[in-house]
């Protein structure tokens, strides 16, 4: 037996690259400096009143014990109906739909269920931070393909780089569209290439579609679920969640839909992570999913107006503003205002401008590609966005 004389880091090796998230550091900075926090992506208004009332009623009606493992039947039925209504996708609520503790658990459980240690997972960078951690927990290896701002301000990728990321050890693809943090919406040609590679290498794909209702009218493409492409339904696990669509990010009610064998594999892992969650919230999310088209249209229009408000402020402040086609986010290049490194820039921004943002380089393996890119969240009340815009316009950025 080895004796440890010094204090060792008790954390398993595979998780050591993950420190405190950048969101925690930047949110603490916002609190300390009184800055406007456009770092973390959560709305500062509540979701639909019908949903909130339904949650309160369910809680008072005693729906406070463990719900069924796969989720309550009325929510699974609502999830299936919602996908039929918006995307013409048919899933059997019994066996092809699983309710999870947010999209985060759905993704983690899917990666843990489908990846053996050493398996490679193809994803795009910048990636949502839980992807890298989920792959690491499974002992997998990430193979990120870089999204880069193109001449039209839209992020894109090199098809050859995507082809080269696939190989004999590829076991899974993780795709997020609409994409956080870039605001990119993958178009049909891009999705067709991804689909053909998944088929050629015979691998399943997890699609993170939490922003499925946040694609703006000037996007290059509408939202196209990968599962709707020929041959893709049977290898796709579609993930979504109530948090973004119904402005309740703290509820953590998500779901995954797909062919029964894949959903069953995810269920077998998920049951030992949380088993179940959010009993009184589940009937409320079922109510929200069934809201009329007017709710969804107003929600998208509201966020688009907020994007426009912030985009104008960022342009006036001198940044190169990349196109945001969807999500809660917009990214900028800081070079025109004298910025060289997003991390340094974001650490100084609360003092320089009284605003908090997030450097997206922390979501890349190829850090250089994201060195000067910074993300701002626009899911805030107009007066907050106006205040941030004013502050940024009057800021002097150190070079
Ligand atoms: C917010 C977000 C999630 C997490 O969703 P939860 O339902 O809160 O777990 C997952 N993926 C992306 C891209 C997100 O932005």
Automatic annotation (TrEMBL):
User: InterPro entries from the entry?
Assistant: Aminotransferase_I/II_large, Kynurenine-oxoglutarate_AT, PyrdxlP-dep_Trfase, PyrdxlP-dep_Trfase_major, PyrdxlP-dep_Trfase_small
Give the UniProt keywords, A-Z.
Answer: Aminotransferase, Pyridoxal phosphate, Transferase
Q: Which CDD domains match?
A: AAT_like
Which cofactors are reported in the record for this sequence? Answer: pyridoxal 5'-phosphate
Q: Where is the Aminotransferase class I/classII large domain?
A: 36-392
A GO molecular function for this record?
A: transaminase activity
Query: Could you confirm whether the keyword Transferase appears in this record?
Result: yes
Plastid listed as a keyword: no
Concerning PANTHER family, the annotation shows: FI04487P (PTHR43807)
Its name, as the record gives it, is: Pyridoxal phosphate-dependent aminotransferase
Provenance organism: Luedemannella flava
Upper taxonomic lineage: Bacteria, Bacillati, Actinomycetota, Actinomycetes, Micromonosporales
């Amino acid at each position: 037996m080895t004796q440890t004389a010094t204090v060792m880091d008790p954390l398993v090796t595979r998780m050591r690259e993950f420190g405190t998230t950048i969101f925690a550091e930047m949110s603490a900075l916002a609190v300390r400096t009184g800055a406007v926090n456009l770092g973390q992506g959560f709305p500062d208004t509540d979701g639909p009143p019908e949903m909130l009332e339904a949650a309160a009623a369910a809680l008072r009606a005693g729906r406070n014990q463990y719900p069924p493992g796969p989720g309550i039947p009325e929510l699974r039925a609502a999830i299936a109906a919602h996908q039929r209504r918006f995307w013409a996708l048919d899933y059997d609520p019994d066996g092809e739909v699983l309710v999870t503790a947010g999209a985060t658990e759905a993704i983690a459980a899917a990666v843990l269920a489908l990846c053996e240690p050493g398996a490679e997972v193809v994803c795009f960078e910048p990636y949502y931070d839980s992807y890298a951690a989920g792959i690491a927990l499974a002992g997998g290896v990430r193979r990120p393909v870089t999204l880069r701002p193109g001449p039209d301000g839209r992020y894109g990728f090199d098809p050859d780089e995507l082809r080269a990321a696939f190989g004999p050890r590829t076991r899974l693809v993780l795709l997020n569209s609409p994409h956080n943090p870039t605001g990119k919406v993958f178009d049909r040609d891009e999705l067709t290439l991804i689909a053909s590679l998944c088929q050629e290498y015979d691998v399943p794909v997890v699609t993170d579609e939490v922003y499925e209702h946040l694609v703006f009218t000037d996007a290059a493409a509408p939202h196209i679920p990968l599962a709707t492409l020929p041959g893709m339904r049977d290898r796709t696990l579609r993930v979504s969640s109530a948090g973004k669509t119904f402005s309740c990010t703290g509820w953590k009610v998500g779901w995954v839909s797909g062919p029964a064998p894949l959903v069953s594999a995810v269920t077998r892992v998920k049951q030992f992570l949380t088993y179940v969650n959010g009993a009184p919230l589940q009937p409320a999310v079922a109510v929200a999913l069934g809201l009329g088209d007017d709710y969804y249209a107003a929600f998208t229009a509201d966020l688009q107006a907020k994007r426009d408000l912030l985009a104008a402020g960022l342009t006036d402040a001198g940044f190169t503003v990349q196109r945001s086609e969807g999500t809660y986010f917009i990214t900028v290049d800081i070079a025109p205002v004298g910025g060289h490194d997003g991390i340094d820039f974001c650490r100084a921004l609360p003092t320089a401008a009284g605003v908090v943002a997030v450097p997206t380089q922390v979501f890349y393996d190829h850090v250089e590609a994201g060195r000067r890119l910074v993300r701002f969240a626009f899911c805030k009340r107009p007066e907050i966005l106006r205040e941030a815009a004013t502050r940024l316009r009057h800021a002097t950025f150190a070079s």
